[in-house]
């Protein structure tokens, strides 16, 4: 993130699980994209993030 910001670039931080989301929040990511794809089998489950704690879901 720092490198992108130092180049005056917007930074999209992609997360695919709750642990990564917590890390992105701790790093003060300004834009977070949630990937609902399971990278093991490439399936997509739009309800995947519904199981995450509501406190972390920011819209």
Automatic annotation (TrEMBL):
Keywords: Amino-acid biosynthesis, Aromatic amino acid biosynthesis, Decarboxylase, Lyase, Tryptophan biosynthesis. InterPro entries: Aldolase_TIM, Indole-3-glycerol_P_synth, Indole-3-glycerol_P_synth_dom, RibuloseP-bd_barrel. It comes from the Bacteria. Pathway: Amino-acid biosynthesis; L-tryptophan biosynthesis; L-tryptophan from chorismate: step 4/5. Residues 4-50 form the Indole-3-glycerol phosphate synthase domain. It catalyses: 1-(2-carboxyphenylamino)-1-deoxy-D-ribulose 5-phosphate + H(+) = (1S,2R)-1-C-(indol-3-yl)glycerol 3-phosphate + CO2 + H2O. One of its GO terms (molecular function) is indole-3-glycerol-phosphate synthase activity. One of its GO terms (biological process) is L-tryptophan biosynthetic process. It is an enzyme of class 4 (lyase). Its EC number is 4.1.1.48. It holds the Pfam family IGPS. This is indole-3-glycerol-phosphate synthase.
């Amino acid at each position: 993130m720092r490198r992108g910001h130092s180049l005056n670039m917007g930074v999209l931080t992609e997360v695919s699980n709750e642990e990564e989301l917590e890390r992105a929040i701790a790093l003060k990511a300004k834009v977070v994209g949630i990937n609902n794809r399971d990278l093991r089998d490439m399936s997509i489950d739009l309800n995947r993030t519904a199981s995450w704690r509501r406190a972390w879901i920011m819209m």
